[in-house]
Amino acid sequence: MDQFRNHPLYRKHNIDSAMSSLWDFYKKRFLSLFLISFAMSLVLQYVSTFVNIQELSTVTDPMVMLGMMKELLVPILIISVINLLFNVILQYYVIYNPLSKENNILISMLKSLRYFIPYLIIMVLLAFAGSIAIVLGILALIVGVFFSLLYIFTLYFFILPIMMTEGPHIGNTISRTITLAHRNFWSNIGWVAVFIILLIVISLISSGIILLPFTGNFMKTIINPGETSGLTDMTKNPLFLILSALAGALTFPLIPLFSCILYFNGKATEDISQEATVADPENTTVRVEDLYAKPYSDDHPDNPDNKV
Is the model's pTM score more than 0.85? Predict the structure, then answer.
């Protein structure tokens, strides 16, 4: 673990230093992160063209709609698995490339594979737990739903950095995720909320820019919701795929970067606490002898046994 103390994101952060570190890291390695993310986003955009969700809007028969949803289930799962694989590769690159230039993208692709299956299992468990949390959140109305989502996202951001720095053990990853996420709990929740808001704003702006060349098709669909062919053609247009991949490449690296900041902040805080305990254990450890009066020698003037 000592090697990660040299990582540029390892330190005890506040919200200002966290965002500053994220921006500095992103800016310094922008070209490599952008090119890697662009290639990944382009693959995801292309695979997504095989899933035509717009057709569901034209179906009124519930049974037909259910059958179409079953047909779309497998492609959606494949896209999700590919997305998770890309997340693992990019997270490994963000963690290990600053420590050694030998950890290039090809090495990261190979070495990150050992984390993919445990990560996939944990994500399935997280999705199950998240569904329960959202249902409970619904019972607590809208505020409960938002809080449940924030809590799930907070856990999610810790998973990969813990797995890649402390070992791909599912049990240890889950316990460490809960431990670090609940240390400075409200601070972590607040940082995640700020990050998600920033991510949404950036995504909305980039999406608006992407739609500019396709304003005609988009407006046609809004005016006539039953006419989805224009929107379908737009999503399969090579120019749209490239522009969407470019926009995705701008935001894709932000998630692993923020995950590292959350984890390294929690780990640095933990390390500082442990080092303080080792340096001055008497201030933190209660000994048995501290519970009793210190004994006096037989000839000591304050010995109560010598006093009449």
Answer: no
